[in-house]
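Page 37, continued from 36.
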């Protein structure tokens, strides 16, 4: 069991067996060779007809002598948690007697879905195939044999009795010093798989018009499309309207042009839609409907296959997303969501590709700042943008720039949401910093203003929605 250090418990049980049998086992040498089935180790020290009974007695003694003193290896629980974080299932395949292996699982609180015991070498491959494993982590050359027999990725750790050279000679794909290195390796491995799936999905589409806001998700999708299809089969469309901050326009255009793709900047008129201006809980539906209704004809005009949005796998699980529904109804494709790309993976892949947007804060449209039930208007959006620009300037001049910032329009009153660390420090209640920020918001046209003590919270306006829109 690669998760636990079986040496102390094995040695204690072997010594107890030796006393009962009246023999002397070379405990230290036998413990150093752990991995093969117990009977293989006993054959060198007992008569052939005594091996099987000795093995049975060892397994009977095992619970009393081996379970309590056996610890997990450093990083074992974290390794299992990493698998869960990626939505994986955990299979324990071991040469150990299954009931005794289960005792370790229970005693140490190991998060396991299925345990299969008393399998060895290539025999593990059949279990791995049956359970549809994708990666097998082991510490012995025979674990490598099982992984290769199943056609899955073999990951080996050096906490067993085999050397790096032995494991590599056996054909393992990866060698780690110990399990503490596994979460980072798994993150990279899953990201590689997602990138390969994304490339395949984009190639399947053939060409795309990316709805490009300039944010981290759509920027990554645009870069991935260029890598998969080439710039001639990709275009970026950034819709200009009152809801797109002016500060976002030039960086978005520069990013797309650096990739060598066509940049389209059609105007959208979501303000002409009654449902958008009314700003009920489904406002985003009308916004996305307007966007897709404008971009749809451009697909045919420029000889492209589909409009692609940067919707990721997390967005699809976030619950209230009327904009996603509007885009889907109009035939938009979602390559990132289709292959399971999460926001975290978007940022990791963007960093790997050295995209400047890898750590760009979320930048929802200006209308998202206006409280539901208050009509959206060009005046309100311009006022919010002026206020946010002014607050950013004040904070930068004070040497405390904000990463995340929203000025929420609650009517004539503004709520300033900014990084929690700033709220607890430079913008604490009654501070000079708080007064300077509030003065900047008031100068932008608000009658009242306050700093939200809870700090920035993405989607905080959704807290007041009634059940109709959830």
């Amino acid at each position: 069991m690669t998760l636990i250090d079986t040496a102390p418990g094995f040695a204690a049980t072997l010594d107890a067996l030796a006393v009962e049998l009246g023999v002397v086992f070379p405990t230290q040498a036998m413990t150093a060779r752990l991995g093969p089935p117990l009977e293989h180790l006993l054959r060198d020290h007992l008569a052939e007809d005594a091996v099987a009974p000795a093995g049975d007695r060892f397994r009977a003694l095992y619970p009393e002598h081996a379970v309590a003193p056996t610890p997990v290896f450093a990083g074992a629980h974290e390794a299992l948690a990493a698998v869960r974080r990626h939505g994986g299932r955990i299979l324990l395949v071991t040469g150990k007697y299954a009931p005794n292996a289960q005792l370790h699982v229970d005693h140490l609180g190991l998060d396991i879905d299925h345990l299969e015991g008393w399998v060895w070498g290539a025999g593990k491959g059949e279990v791995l195939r049956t359970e549809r494993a994708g990666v097998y982590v082991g510490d012995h050359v025979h674990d490598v044999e099982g992984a290769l027999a199943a056609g899955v990725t073999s990951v080996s750790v050096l906490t067993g009795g085999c050397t790096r050279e032995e494991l590599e000679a056996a054909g393992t794909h990866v060698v780690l010093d110990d399990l503490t290195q596994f979460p980072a390796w798994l993150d990279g491995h899953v990201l590689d798989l997602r990138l390969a799936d994304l490339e395949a999905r984009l190639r399947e589409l053939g060409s795309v018009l990316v709805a490009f806001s300039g944010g981290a998700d759509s920027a990554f999708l645009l870069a991935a499309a260029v890598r998969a299809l080439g710039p001639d089969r990709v275009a970026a469309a950034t819709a200009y309207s009152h809801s797109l901050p002016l500060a976002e326009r030039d960086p978005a255009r520069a990013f797309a042009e650096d990739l060598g793709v066509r940049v389209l900047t059609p105007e959208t008129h979501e303000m002409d839609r009654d449902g958008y201006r009314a700003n009920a809980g489904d406002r985003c539906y009308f916004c996305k409907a307007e966007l897709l209704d404008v971009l749809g004809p451009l697909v045919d005009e420029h000889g492209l296959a589909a409009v692609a949005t940067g919707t990721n796998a997390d967005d699809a699980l976030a619950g209230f997303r009327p904009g996603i529904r509007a885009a889907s109804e109009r035939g938009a494709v979602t390559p990132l969501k289709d292959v399971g790309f999460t926001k975290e993976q978007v940022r990791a892949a963007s960093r790997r590709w050295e995209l400047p947007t890898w750590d760009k804060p979320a930048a929802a449209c200006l209308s998202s700042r206006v409280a539901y039930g208050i009509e959206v208007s060009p005046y309100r959006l311009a006022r919010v943008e002026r206020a946010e620009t002014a607050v950013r300037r004040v904070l930068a001049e004070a040497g405390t720039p904000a990463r995340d910032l929203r000025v929420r329009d609650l009517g004539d009153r503004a709520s300033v949401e900014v990084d929690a660390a700033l709220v607890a420090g430079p913008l604490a209640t009654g501070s000079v910093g708080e007064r300077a920020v509030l003065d900047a918001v008031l100068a932008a046209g608000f009658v009242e203003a306050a700093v939200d003590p809870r700090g920035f919270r993405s989607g905080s306006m959704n807290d007041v929605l009634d059940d109709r829109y959830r």
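Residues 287 and 355 are 28 Å apart (CA to CA). Flag for discussion at group meeting. The two ends are 46 Å apart (CA to CA).
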